[in-house]
Design brief:
heterodimer; A: about 425 residues; alpha+beta; OB fold (Dihydrolipoamide Acetyltransferase, E2P); Dihydrolipoamide Transferase; Chloramphenicol Acetyltransferase; 3 domains; four-stranded antiparallel β-sheet; B: about 800 residues; alpha/beta; Rossmann fold; six-stranded parallel β-sheet; 28 helices; 22 strands
């Protein structure tokens, strides 16, 4: 009897893994402990080892496939041995290349008059019972995130029920943690808040790992929060002046790397404590306001956007804040960021200014009630007496959850940010 | 009683020689004077006229089949037309001395017989009777078409009526004798004694025996003729029918006043060919068919060979034989030789016979010979013959003109077929006379014994009672059956070991004491004829309760169950009723040929009601239902359950009469997590599984006992599966092709969106049933149910399956064909 090689389960929260590379080929002899393939979760890359000696009889999934954990991915046995019923045996695994060809073919050969979608999937179809699917829809659960405990990993009713229960529980635990955070800060155990943007492209890319988490969190955010965005511009002359000043400062001070974004973070960290309704979580039954600012900073990484958190940002000097922001961004880029550094934010700043974006509508990093989007600096006309003058201004876009915060308090906060930005010198006095 | 008939070894071992009486061959000697005295000139001329009508009718059909045209009318008839051109004298001669109450059953080649029997009846019935029949038949629908054309008198109109209605039937029109649902091979007209014609060779033999039993037991007038062909002598059911018809018990055991043996005549229209096989010299060994009579009883079945090419020889034979039959001394076998000049069907190129042979018989053509005979003896003139011939052609041409246009003779609405599949009537008694019994019902010794027992298997505290003190499943059946015998005087029960023994499983114990012989009797081991006779008895107007000892023996009665019992109500367009209940026991312990549950096979056949009770309450309530209806019921009883007491119904099995609502499954246990549907005895194994699911896994399963396979109201099932989203179906039938799959597919289609897993079937293995000691590997067990739930519906926590119920294993079995 051939031995099944299962996609291992890497911890409780891992639902599926992407096969990166097969190290052994079908028909190849393997020894127990040999690395069969490399697989990737949203957190790490690891190897799947041969559980026994024998011939790699059958590879059930090709590279690039996203395979639910505990699903058989290969069979090892003796040469010529008949495989036990292999549900995915036929049609044989399709390589990503073939998939692309197939997709292209299906879109070109399709009668344009037909409204039918070709069902050729670009990855393993979701196995979910009709009942579970209906229940998931009714409760706003994304079935793709579920781990099926039905036969062969099929998502069944109880999996959705568990997810509903977990969702409610996590809301409860956030609420509890928020209560703790409001008194004293301790390293948080909550799950990683991640955010991101969509990419465009002509090829099909499996939605996995970070991308999958981002997509789910963003959809959940949009579906369950009443988001609106306020736009304003702030006089950026002070920012530019100070930026220049820091660059020119003697190296010993270590101010050279202070960026415009660091200055904005500093403005936010210093202003936010005066507006606790914006430094808060929306928890449906309660709104949790925080006196401390754990400032989330959006970082663009090759895997998508991550949001590391600067703890107690309101207590930090500009230089300390800048250093912490650099450290976290570096860790994100290198994939070394810890779970702790990714959790517990109370407010988030995201910056697209370097791309020339003037204003945009950031999406809330729920359950946070507000997020500040930072745009580019551009000259704006200003009336000075009878005269029109052009001064550099920076775009600020504040997205707020209307469930928690009305337009007026949000505007007051944004107005405070605008003023603080223009008069950042005054903030230095406070640090 | 069998006990009174001693089998003495000295007697049976004595040396001797069996002398067989001579069998007469073609002994008829024409005697025109005697014939004139008997039939009169008019009667002799009518014989010619009827033969001419049949010849022209079939010539017309042949023209349509081969040329698509008869005179000026064009028509394409794609259906069958098995012609009997050349055999008219045999058909007409037979009916000369039959009365309208005599029955003739026929074959696929029976156009001539239908016309002969009906025309003979028209001669014998009064105008008033004819008008009454024509006006009442389908509420005068046929008459309204026919009477548009001119006619000379009522008999002329009645002839037109029959010609029209038979041709309309052949051409599948609503105005046919059976609304076009019977067609060429099955047409019949009961009011004139033309009974169902059967497209299964020899199919009429055992049915005719049942009709004769009906006449004899219910003291109805008339004899019954099974018109079958020489080739049907090779068919088992024909022999079985002859065996049942020739049982000694009619004379040795039945009360004298019953009147002896059933009045049945097996008439073999011997045209020497079975399709293309030559029964003389090739496919049979009897040389002379009449010889077979000698193999059946000491009277040789009063067998004779009769010259079927002379209608008067045939008429003479029938006259003599009907006396024998009426005296209860049957059965009779006639070897009526004849010859079909036409092919088996119009597509027949007659490659199996020589031109020379056909020419020889053409030279002896029965119609021309009879014409000559009458002319020779001045009964009829050449002129009369000619005018008779033109009259016949005129009649047939008019018939064709009326039948062919769909505007005049439309087809029935196809949905009508669905309305006549079942008659769905409640008929407590099929006759008003007092049922014949030997003692008052209350005095029945078994019933008295039952009265001391508990009606429930558990006491008031819910504790199980000792088996001996509890009303059993078989006793519940007995109560229902006893009740029916005291309600319906026509009810008879027969099968193997039914009397004294009480049936192999004792359901009928206690009936022998209260029922006189004709109402309960043993048959030979002739499963085909047991069912076939039941069919004949029921379609003649009485209720029959018949038994096949084991479900497996249904194979022996395949044609009777699948083609006869199931189809005659609808093939008659709802004219016939089929109050026939067939009890079959589903066995275990006795291996491969005694342990099969074939309920799925039966449920597949349209026209049968299929019941399978699993509790004493249902056994009685469903038997009451079956014995109070008008439709054929196959009633399955699991041998595992005969001893079981009532566990579900609060208060147990009622003493009085009640019926289980038809088609309604029973909810045996409420639950919310999973639905288990059972058919038959698997109910109890499913309940064991349910117990374990609840205790070990906290899963509350709902259990539904299907009870009825057809008809079946799925509402309760849909409701349950909608609630639970998970369903497992189990029965003792082999898994492949099981009725459970039909249910599963219907459930899937209906409540797809509620399903949390595809419906899972747990049936018996697709194997032979092994020995009792190994049955746990064959029949569904509690563990199989749990394992299948774990593998295919809802993985159970920390559960280790002990059998392989995975989909992969099923795929392997599929590939291996097991």
């Amino acid at each position: 009897m051939a031995t099944e090689v299962l996609m291992p389960r890497q911890g409780q929260t891992v639902e599926s893994c992407v096969i990166l590379e097969w190290k052994k080929k079908e028909g190849e002899k393997v020894q127990k402990g040999d690395i069969l393939c490399e697989v990737e979760t949203d957190k790490a890359v690891f190897s799947v080892e041969a559980p026994t000696d024998g011939i790699l009889l059958k590879v059930l999934f090709s590279e690039g496939a996203d395979v639910p954990v505990l699903t058989p991915i290969a069979y090892i046995g003796e040469a010529g041995e008949q495989l036990p019923g292999t549900p995915d045996k036929s049609p044989p695994p399709i390589s990503s290349k073939e998939q692309q060809t197939m997709q292209t073919a299906s879109t070109t050969s399709q009668d344009p008059g037909l409204q039918y979608q070709s069902s050729a999937p670009d990855r393993k179809p979701l196995r979910i019972s009709p009942r579970a699917m209906r229940l998931a829809r009714q409760n706003g659960i994304q079935p793709e995130i579920l781990v099926g405990t039905g036969p062969k990993g099929r998502i069944i009713e109880r999996d959705v029920r568990r997810a509903i229960e977990e969702k409610q529980q996590s809301l409860r635990s956030i609420s509890e943690e928020a209560a703790r955070l409001s008194t004293s800060w301790e390293p948080s155990q909550t799950t990683t808040p991640v955010m991101g943007e969509t990419k465009e492209g002509g090829i099909s890319v499996p939605v996995t790992g970070t991308r999958k988490v981002i997509s789910q969190r963003m959809m959940e955010s949009l579906q369950s929060h009443a988001q609106y965005t306020l736009h304003a511009i702030a006089d950026a002359r002070a920012l530019l002046r100070w930026r220049k000043r820091f660059k020119e400062a003697p190296e010993a001070y270590g101010y050279q790397d202070i960026t415009i974004n660091d200055l904005i973070l500093f403005v936010v960290a210093k202003t936010l404590p005066r507006f606790p309704e914006l430094n808060a979580y929306w928890l449906k039954d309660t709104i949790q306001r925080f006196s401390t600012v754990h400032l989330g900073v959006a970082v663009d990484t090759p895997k998508g956007l991550l949001v590391p958190v600067i703890r107690n940002a309101q207590t930090l000097s500009l230089a300390a804040l800048s250093r912490e922001a650099k450290r976290l961004a570096q860790a994100c880029m290198e994939g070394k960021i810890s779970t702790d550094d990714l959790s517990g934010g109370t407010f988030t700043v995201t910056n697209l200014g370097s791309f020339g974006i003037q204003y945009f509508t950031p999406i809330l990093n729920a359950p946070q009630v507000a997020i500040l989007g930072v745009g580019t600096i551009q000259p704006q006309p200003v009336m000075e007496g009878e005269e029109v003058k052009f001064y550099p201004h920076i775009g600020l876009s504040l997205t707020v959850d209307h469930q928690a915060v009305d337009g007026a308090p949000a505007s007051r906060f944004l107005k405070a940010l605008v003023e603080a930005t223009a008069n950042i010198d005054l903030l230095f006095a406070g640090s | 009683m069998p006990k009174s008939i001693l089998i003495d070894p000295k007697e049976v071992r004595r040396k001797g020689i069996l002398a067989i009486e001579h069998i007469p061959l073609n002994q008829y000697t024409p005697d025109i004077q005697a014939e004139k005295n008997l039939y009169g000139n008019e009667g002799l001329k009518k014989i010619l006229y009827h033969m001419l009508v049949i010849r022209e009718f079939e010539t017309m059909l042949n023209e349509f089949k081969t040329k698509g045209k008869y005179y000026e009318v064009e028509y394409n008839h794609p259906g069958p037309a098995h012609l009997s051109i050349g055999q008219e004298s045999a058909a007409v001669g037979q009916c000369v001395n039959l009365s309208p109450v005599d029955f003739i059953f026929g074959s696929h080649r029976s156009h001539g017989e239908i016309l002969a029997k009906c025309f003979s009846a028209i001669e014998k019935l009064s105008d008033q009777q004819l008008e009454g029949t024509m006006k009442s038949y389908f509420d005068g629908a046929i008459l309204r078409v026919v009477e548009q054309e001119p006619y000379t008198n009522t008999k002329d109109l009645a002839e037109n009526f029959i010609l029209y209605a038979v041709l309309a039937e052949i051409f599948a029109r609503e105005t046919g004798v059976n609304k076009g649902l019977g067609g060429s091979m099955h047409a019949f007209f009961i009011p004139f004694g033309s009974m169902p014609n059967n497209a299964i060779v020899g199919g009429s033999a055992d049915i005719a025996v049942g009709a004769a039993l009906f006449k004899r037991i219910n003291q109805k007038p008339g004899i019954v003729i099974a018109n079958i062909g020489d080739a049907s002598m090779g068919c088992g059911p024909v022999w079985e029918g002859m065996m049942v018809a020739a049982m000694d018990q009619y004379r040795t055991l039945w009360p004298k006043e019953t009147g002896g043996a059933p009045p049945v005549l097996f008439n073999f229209f011997n045209n020497f060919y079975g399709m293309g096989g030559q029964t003389y010299g090739e496919t049979m060994g009897f040389k002379i068919l009449a010889r077979v009579g000698a193999g059946v009883n000491p009277e040789n079945m009063h067998a004779e060979r009769v010259d079927g090419y002379n209608p008067l020889a045939v008429a003479d034979a029938i006259l003599r034989k009907r006396k024998i039959l009426e005296e209860g001394k049957g059965p009779v076998l006639l070897d009526t030789i004849t010859y079909r000049l036409s092919g088996h069907s119009p597509s027949d190129a007659s490659s199996y016979r020589t031109r020379e042979e056909i020419q020889l018989w053409e030279g002896e053509d029965c119609i021309r010979a009879y014409q000559e005979y009458l002319k020779q003896h001045r009964v009829v003139s050449a002129q009369e013959i000619e005018s008779m011939g033109s009259k016949v052609i005129e009649k047939i041409r008019k018939t064709v003109q009326l039948v062919v246009p769909l505007s005049k003779s439309p087809r029935c609405n196809a949905e009508f077929i669905g309305k006549v599949m079942f008659s769905n009537l409640k008929i407590p008694a099929w006759d008003s006379r007092k049922p014949d019994v030997l003692l008052a019902k209350e005095e029945n010794p078994r019933l008295k014994k039952i009265q001391s027992k508990s009606r429930s298997a558990i006491d008031a505290q819910g504790k199980p009672l000792p088996k001996m003190k509890v009303l059993s499943f078989r006793e519940a059946l007995f109560e229902a059956i006893l009740d029916a015998f005291y309600r319906d005087p026509t009810l008879v029960a027969f099968g193997e070991e039914n009397r004294d023994w009480g049936g192999a499983f004792g359901v009928y114990q206690g009936l022998t004491e209260c029922l006189p012989y004709p109402r309960l009797f043993n048959t030979p081991i002739s499963e085909g004829a047991i069912v076939g006779a039941g069919v004949g008895y029921a379609l003649s107007g009485g209720r029959a309760l018949i038994e096949l000892m084991y479900c497996d023996f249904m194979g022996r009665a395949g044609d009777e169950i699948f083609n006869q019992m199931s189809k005659w109500q609808s093939m008659s367009a709802g004219i016939l009723r089929m109050p026939l209940v067939l009890r079959v026991s589903v066995g275990s312990k006795y291996g491969a040929q005694h342990s099969q549950d074939w309920s799925s096979i039966v449920a597949h056949i349209p026209g049968l009601k299929v019941m399978f009770p699993a509790t004493p309450y249902d056994a009685k309530g469903m038997m009451n239902l079956a014995l109070n209806g008008s439709d054929p019921v196959v009633f399955f009883e699991s041998q595992r359950l005969y001893d079981i007491g009532e566990l579900f119904e609060p208060g147990g099995v009622p003493e009085g009469y009640y019926e289980v609502p038809e088609g309604e499954p029973a909810l045996r246990k409420k639950g919310k997590d999973l639905t288990i549907i059972t058919i038959g005895a698997t109910l109890y194994r499913a309940l064991e599984a349910v117990e374990e699911l609840s205790h070990r896994f906290g899963i509350e399963a709902e259990v539904i006992d299907t009870r009825f396979l057809n008809p079946l109201n799925y509402e309760k099932i849909y409701e349950s599966v909608q609630k639970t989203g998970k369903v497992l179906l189990t029965s003792d039938a082999c898994e492949r092709g099981s009725f459970l799959h039909t249910m599963a597919s219907r459930i899937t289609e209906t409540v797809f969106d509620s399903l949390d897993a595809p419906p899972v079937i747990v049936g018996s293995r697709n194997w032979i049933t092994p020995a009792y000691e190994m049955e746990q590997y064959f029949f569904p067990q509690k563990e199989w149910i749990l394992d299948a739930i774990h593998e295919r519906i809802l993985p159970l926590k920390d559960y280790r399956p002990t059998t392989n119920q995975t989909l992969e294993e099923l795929h392997r079995r599929d590939r291996a064909g097991v």
